Amino acid sequence: MIDLPVIQPEVAAPARPRKPDWLRVKLPVGPEYAAVRRLVDEHKLHTICESGNCPNMGECWGAGTATFMILGNICTRSCSFCAVATGRPTEYDLDEPRRVAEAIKLMKVKHAVITSVNRDELKDRGASVWRDTVVFTKQLSPETTIETLIPDVKANWEALEVMISGGQEVISHNMETVGSLYRLVRPQAKYDRSLEQIRRTKLAGHRTKSGIMLGLGEKPDELYRAMDDLVANGLDILTLGQYLQPTKRHLEVAEFITPEQFNHYREEGLKRGLKYVESGPLVRSSYHAERHVNVPI
Q: Which PANTHER family does the protein's record reference (predicted)?
C-alpha cells in the first residue's frame, strides 16, 4: 500500500477590513488651497499635513490654515504608524523660525499649529528652534494664537522647559495609543515617560493637550484607563481619531471605529474629567485646533 501525501486545504488570509463610507474625503482643491500650497513651496516649509497624509488637508488648507513641521522632514524615530520618513536628519536651519513666522504672517493665520519630527541626535532636541519659532511668530503676528505639538524629549526636562517657554497658548504631546500597544506602535517611546512630559507641562502652568489613534487593536477598557492616566497627569484636551494605514509597510488597521462609538468615547472622556474631547473618525491632532485655545487652564 502506498502512502499518499496529505494535502492540506488552503487557508485564506483574513480579509482586511474595508474602509467605510464615513472615511471618504474630498481631494484638496480651490483658490485658498492653491494659495497655501504656493506659500509653503516658496518658503521651503514642511507641513505635517503632507508628510502625515492627513485626510483633512483639503478642509484645513481650503480655510487658509496649515500645521507647520519644523526641524526638517526626516525623523530619528521609526514608529510603525507614521508616514514621515525615518533616517539621519541632515537639516538644521537656525533661520527656519524666521521663515515660518513670515509665512504665518503672509497667510494671515489666526491660529497656527507647529509640530516637528523627533531629533534625538540633538543635545537639546531642537528646543531652541522651537522656542524661537514661537517667539518670532508672536513678534510678527501678535494676534495669532499658537499650539505647539511637541515630540518626546526622552526625559530631557531642561529641553522641555525651553520648548514650552515661547508664549504659546496650547502645548500638545500625543500619546498616540494605549499603554499595552506602545512597544508595537511607538517602539522608541515609553508610555509613562509621555505621561510625565504632560504632567510637567501642566505643572508649568500651561494648557495641555494630547491625541490617541483608535483602531490599532486597543480595547475600550484600555482606552478608559489611558483617559484616567491623562486626567491624573493634568491633561485638559484630548483628540481621538481613526488610525489609517499610510502605506503597506505600516501597521494594518485592526478595526474601523464607528462614528457612534467615537461619540460614546467623547462622553466617557468628559465624564472622567477631561475639559474638552474632540472625537471622530477623521479627527487629527490639529483638527479644529482653534477651538482649544479657549479651554480653561
A: LIPOYL SYNTHASE, LIPOYL SYNTHASE, MITOCHONDRIAL
Q: Is 75 annotated as a binding residue?
A: yes
For residue 116, say whether it is annotated as part of any ligand binding site: no
Quick: pLDDT tens for 184-209: 999 999 999 999 999 999 999 999 99
Nearest residue to 173 via CA among 249, 183, 186: 186
For residue 97, report the phi and psi dihedrals to the nearest 5 degrees: -55, -40
Q: Which helix (H) or strand (E) holds 214?
A: strand 207-214
State the Cα–Cα distance between residues 71 and 29, nearest whole angstrom. Answer: 28
Task: Summarize pLDDT for 77-136 with one digit per residue, the tens.
Answer: 988 888 788 898 888 889 999 999 998 898 888 889 999 999 999 999 999 999 999 999
Three cell numbers at 88?
A: 539621519
Q: Please tell me whether 82 is known to bind a ligand.
A: yes
- Cell representation of residue 161: 522647559
Cβ atoms of 227 and 274 within 8 Å: the answer is yes
Q: What residues have CB less than 8 Å from 280, skipping those under 6 apart?
A: 240, 241, 259, 262
Task: Report the alpha-carbon distance of residue 198 to residue 172 in Å, rounded.
Answer: 8
Using the structure block, give the residue that is written with the C-alpha cell 523660525: 97
**Measured between alpha carbons, how far is 290 from 258 in angstroms, rounded to an integer?**
25
pTM as predicted: 0.86
Burial annotation 77-102 (CB, 10 A radius, 16+ → b, else e): bebebbbbeeeebeeeeeebbbbbbb
Cβ atoms 37, 25 nearer than 8 A = no
